[in-house]
């Protein structure tokens, strides 16, 4: 039976739920999917602005839809802003976390599933699930609202169907997931051999303490020495691991985290740019402007104006 969860209660009857559907272990969030219908749905998920304390990875596919708010996703070595109307696709290959814009809470609907067990036995023709297409540096896990109207329409139809309580719901959800996953494969074709980069979970785990420290304290002064100490590594080893796993130096990752957090804050037009700069860890407006331009090729004022249009 389909598990549909809310923050405080279940939406369906006669369904046992373990820790709201998750078995939490360090770094791993096991989904505990029902073998008969391996799909869990959270209709009223939310993320506040509290920094997440550790990266995690699921043992299944996560499809998300942001219904309100904004914030930042950290997926592998990617830092991805999200806003209301965006959808997310995260496979079991990538460690991730997210938090909302400071002072806000974002609202979400999440679908967690095992595509092979849920769909393959019921496929009328050959069904393909190539999870390696949807991970690594070339894949942008946040699909902005308006970028692919069919994918977003299918997500909205999934959400509407999940709210139903009749005997047709499960079969309709399965059919919609067939369509959505097939469209994902059409939208994101198989990459060349040189691009088939599978994230190294073991290597990434060596720098998780530094990533967590940055996520929690990006707005404070942080040194490479402190980041290395958190990982029990030398500075040189930390830099080597960052280069391999993140494709950048620890300093650049910290700067990028600050700029992405600032970009999310700029969507609230009541925040003055100087306040945004200081709140995101920059000690001067000029330093903020330089860093922002490196990431977005425009200054913060131009970025805010662009978001209004």
Task: Give a verbal description of the structure.
By secondary structure, the chain is of the alpha+beta class. The chain has two domains: 3-194, Jelly Rolls; 201-308, Homeodomain-like (Arc Repressor Mutant, subunit A), CATH 1.10.10. The chain is built from eleven helices and twelve strands. The strands form three sheets. Strands 1-4-11-6-9-12 form a six-stranded mixed beta sheet, covered by helices on one side. A hairpin with a 2-residue loop joins strand 7 (70-75) and strand 8. Helix 5 (208-217) crosses helix 6 (224-230).
Structural category: alpha+beta
Helix content: 25-40%
Mean pLDDT: 83
Number of domains: 2
| N-to-C CA distance | 45 Å
What is the element string, with H for helices and E for strands? EEEEEEEEEEEHEHHHHHHHHHH
Pick out the low-confidence regions: 6-26, 194-199
Q: Kindly identify the CATH topology of the largest domain.
A: Jelly Rolls
Just name the CATH architecture of the largest domain. Answer: Sandwich
Dominant shape: globular
Tally of alpha and pi helices: 11
Question: Largest sheet, order of strands side by side?
Answer: 1-4-11-6-9-12
CATH homologous superfamily of the largest domain? Answer: Jelly Rolls
| Percentage of residues in DSSP E strands | 15-25%
CATH class of the largest domain: Mainly Beta
Pfam families: AraC_binding, HTH_18
Organism: Gimesia aquarii
Keywords: Activator, Cytoplasm, DNA-binding, Transcription, Transcription regulation
Protein name: HTH-type transcriptional activator RhaS
């Amino acid at each position: 039976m389909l598990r549909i969860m809310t923050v405080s209660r279940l939406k369906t009857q006669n369904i046992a739920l373990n820790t709201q559907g998750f078995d939490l272990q360090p770094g791993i969030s096991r989904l505990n999917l029902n073998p008969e219908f391996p799909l869990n749905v959270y209709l009223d998920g939310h993320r506040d602005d509290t920094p997440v304390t550790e990266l995690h990875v699921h043992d299944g596919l996560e499809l998300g839809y942001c219904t309100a708010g904004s914030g930042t996703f950290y997926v592998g070595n990617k830092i991805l802003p999200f806003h209301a109307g965006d959808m997310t696709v995260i496979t079991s290959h990538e460690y991730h976390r997210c938090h909302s814009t400071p002072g806000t809470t974002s609202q979400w609907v999440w679908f967690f599933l095992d595509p092979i067990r849920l769909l393959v036995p019921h496929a009328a023709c050959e069904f393909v699930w190539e999870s390696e297409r949807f991970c690594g540096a070339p894949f942008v896990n946040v699909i902005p609202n308006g970028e692919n109207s069919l994918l977003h329409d299918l997500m909205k139809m999934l959400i509407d169907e999940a709210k139903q309580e009749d005997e047709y719901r499960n079969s309709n959800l399965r059919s919609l997931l067939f369509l959505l996953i097939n469209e994902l494969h059409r939208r994101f074709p198989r990459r060349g051999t040189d691009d088939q980069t599978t994230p190294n979970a073991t290597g990434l785990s060596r720098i998780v303490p530094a990533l967590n420290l940055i996520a929690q304290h990006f707005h404070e002064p942080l040194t490479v020495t402190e980041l290395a100490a958190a990982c029990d590594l030398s500075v040189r080893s930390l830099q080597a691991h960052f280069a391999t796993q993140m494709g950048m130096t620890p300093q650049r990752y910290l700067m990028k985290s600050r700029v992405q957090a600032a970009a999310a804050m700029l969507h609230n037009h009541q925040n003055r740019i100087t306040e945004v700069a200081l709140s995101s860890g920059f000690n001067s407006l000029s330093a903020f402007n330089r860093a922002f331009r490196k990431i977005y090729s425009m200054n913060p004022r131009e970025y805010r104006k662009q978001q209004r249009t």
